[in-house]
Amino acid sequence: MGAVGAVGAVGAVGAVGVERRERKHLADAAEIAVIRSRLARLLRPDPHGRDGVYHVRSLYLDTPRRDAVFEKLGGVRDRHKWRLRIYDRRDDRIRLERKVRRDRWVRKDAVVIDRDTADRVIRGLAPLHHVHPLVRALAVEQRAVGLRSAVIVEYLRQAWIHRVGDVRITLDQRLRSGGWRLDLFAPDPPVIPVLDGPRRTIVEIKHTRWLPAHLEAMLPPSLPAADALSKYVLCCRAAPLAPWEDP
User: Fold this and answer.
1) 10, 116, 150, 202: which is deepest, by most CB within 10 A?
2) How big is the chain by its Cα radius of gyration, in Å?
3) CATH number for the domain harbouring residue 89
């Protein structure tokens, strides 16, 4: 699959993303040490952050019935979900993102929005006449199905990129849930650790068309098979008595 196309200017205004393959593994500290050492020799760090490391916090949107949760758990082939995302706990670069899955392909549509627009999204009133079509699409969906703030997801990400195959490999550590505290812009909100046990780091591998063989070979043989992990679902489950669970 190739690029779907762009809407407006790429970056500051926003764009329709490229469809990629995506897979995730849970890794322990020893496996992460091996992966990090090998990646440092083969790929270059993401130019964002310091040495490719930055803090990510997302506010996911869902219906009152938690449709996005059940579609994921039910294995619905074609689905999408919405989120607001900030980096390093700052509000000077707020992204509205729609993550679209079509079978085994994933696409992320995104636009950078201002704080006022973000606040309106959080209140469930994204502007219907916004200049960007992605915001307008969310506005229609919010009014049609009642999309609202669902859960905060945050973690520390280290990322590397490789131009061949448009490869992006990330290590996501310290996954935390905001529970039912939904303040995206709080400087230091209370959070709940999500992953326990020895495997606490999520390794994400994204690529278009193919993953170069030498990058596939750098994964430790002890790494478990790819898992259908969802940070959103994991963080919803960590929240005390989620509304879609039995008491």
Assistant:
1) 150
2) 18
3) 3.20.100.30
